Amino acid sequence: MTLEEALLAVWRQALEENANIIELGGRRFPVQRTSRRRLRQVDFELDGQPLRGIEQNPETKSRWAELARAGQKVMQFTSGGRYLANVADSKLTLYSGSRAGIEKKTPRKTGKS
Question: In the chain, what are the domain boundaries?
């Protein structure tokens, strides 16, 4: 499964289908609610990398929040504290370098034995 397919699948299941459990690559991940704003949030893995999808807070001043206030279903995706992408009404926007942000890291050779 590609990154794009995974993000769209998580968005669709969490926001469109209002699922309590996300199924991705044969694994299941619970959809939780944030404590303050009750926004939907799901922590999941893709190729061993932890990712998080969180429903956009419509009360912020971002352009994504403006879309959410207008009734669109918007989810932001992060990995390691960095924003990777978002999905707004089934349209995926990848931020620059997002694919590199979740690729498996291979250890560097240091020249020491």
Answer: 3-100
d(CA 78, CA 113): 36
Handedness of CA 7, 26, 23, 77 (dihedral sign): negative
Q: Give the pLDDT of the chain (113 residues) as one tens digit per residue.
A: 899 999 999 999 999 999 999 999 899 999 999 999 999 999 999 999 999 999 999 999 999 999 999 999 999 999 998 999 999 999 999 997 655 545 433 333 334 44
The answer to whether 90 touches 14, Cβ cutoff 8 Å, is no
Give kind and range of the element (H or E) at residue 103: none
Cα(113)–Cα(104) distance, rounded to whole angstroms? 23
A 10 A CB-CB count for 19 gives 16
Count other Cβ atoms within 10 Å, centred on residue 66: 14
Residue 84 φ then ψ, to 5°: -105, -40
Q: Amino acid identity, residue 12? A: R
CA pair distance 100, 47, nearest whole angstrom = 13
